[in-house]
Write a structure and sequence with these properties.
The complex is a heterodimer.
Chain A (H helix, E strand, L loop, with lengths): L1 H44 L5 H5 L13 H32 L3 H14 L3 H16 L4 H25 L3 H9 L4 H12 L1 H16 L26 H10 L3 H34 L1
Chain B lengths: L25 E2 L2 E2 L8 E12 L2 E12 L3 E5 L6 H8 L9 E9 L2 E2 L7 H7 E4 L11 H11 L5 H14 L3 H4 L12 H13 L5 E5 L7 H14 L4 E5 L3 H7 L2 E6 L2 E7 H6 L4 H7 L5
Parallel strand pairs in B: 5-10, 5-11, 8-9, 9-10
Antiparallel strand pairs in B: 1-2, 3-4, 3-6, 6-7, 11-12
The chains are: A mainly alpha, B alpha/beta.
Amino acid sequence: MSAETSLRDHRRKILDRTSVFGMALCTALTVFVLLVILGYVIYRGASYISWGFLTSLPTPVGEGGGGIANALVGSLLVVAVASMMAIPIGVGAAIYLSEFQSGWLGRSVRFLADVLIGVPSIVVGLFAYALVVQPMKDFSAFSGSVAYAFIMIPIILITTQEALRLVPTSLREAALALGTPRWRMILSIVLPTARRALLTGLLLAVARALGEAAPMLFTAFGNPFWNTNLAKPMATVPLVIYRYAVAPYDDWHNQAWAAAFVLILVVLVVNVLTRLAFRSRVDD
Amino acid sequence: MIEVKLEEPWWQNLRARPRPKALRVIRGEKELGLVPQEEVRLSVERLSAYYGQARAVNNVSLAIRARMSTAIIGPSGCGKSTLLRSLNRMHEVVRGARVEGKVLLDGKDLYAPSMDAVKVRRRIGMVFQRANPFPSRSIFENVAVGPRLDGMRDRKALEQSVERSLRMAALWDEVKDQLHQPATRLSGGQQQRLCIARAIAIEPEVLLMDEPCSALDPISTARIEALIEELKKTYTILIVTHNLQQAARASDFTAFMYLGELVEFDTTVRIFERPTQKMTEDYITGRYG
């Protein structure tokens, strides 16, 4: 009897230790993979980075030099235009849903937004192609912005709703009890109180869009020349990485790694900004 | 030998207070006393308040006298806060909440279709249980919210209005050198007085206070009670409280509620000295609640 019990105890302890060890191993693998990706990009890309790479246009194969200035500016432009469309729509919808429609409509739209976040970005690109590129009969930076906006809207909607939820009811009541009309309460009390969490969500959406290549393939399309015309094809950093990486030239491969490094750096900067904003909110 | 002396019950010393002369007290259908109509600022007539199907306040009638303080007491969940929130139409802010009956402010029904809830709340101010200054604003801007809503843009006028309200709330001397600091820097008691300043900055006619001291230490509580004493020279004050001593100290009239109904409403002295209802007596002597 007692021997049997101790045997069972023993098995339980072994099982316990193995499972904890297994989970630790999974964690280590995850971190390892992330570090390898980051490390390899730095290893391959960092050595190729120079001021010239950031400020010059692409050059034909074999000529040497050449950079991603047009793609950097293109990425910023396309994302900026996308933000101009997505931020008012996403924030506006989130305010409407959480302040005026907390019932079934709010929940349904929230569910839809959750689904939209999961839609593969290439599908979003295809949709933007049908919506903008086909009628305009040309690839354009603007169609890329539309695709990015579709990706950003559900993210902004959800993060804004969460940010508004963080504003305590007691503050809304305090404002209403002073005889503040509802719209004014939202503009002058709710939004300023939630501003840091709001900003965090917006930055996350921007970071996500900055890194997407798939929806750009048949919208912004890419462009080896300098272009700031939104109605024409435009280079973006993720596109440059894709094009250069699949080409058969060593020089382009190096440039793709360097561009990847720059992209990671930009996303990292956006992320760090987000964290800083987030931390000061906790400090309050 | 140690002499054991039984202390008098704490409400005994209330006898020294002057008693208000007359009062219109209604319980259910019956009118128990009378005050001249012009003395009544706020008159609650057969008010019932609901959260969805649940009735939190049941058929309550009260007459609140101008420039007096009236306390509403009763055990938790008796509907006293709901009653208070019904008086400035804050009850309806909650989803599914509704009100039946009338609330007359100077004879005009606040629930009449032509009445705008936003305007009602500008005439009947409110202070909440937990101090809730706007964290995104400075001390000055917290108080200035009301005057700004009234369209006051002139800096000088705003400064005067903020100073006046902060002085009335007995906070001016403590904050006059840090008006532009965040309101969240203040202590709990100071924040609550800031909320009182913010509420009186809109120059309401009636001030509702929903357990304003329940989150405060005794010193801050005493300050706010002294403030109530001061404020009722100008405003009509209703105060919901869990603290019986506070009701006794800081009010002229007391209403006792139980399970959504008004059990007894009379001068504070009479409620605490010789209540007519057994339930009231049991409650104030601490037998339940």
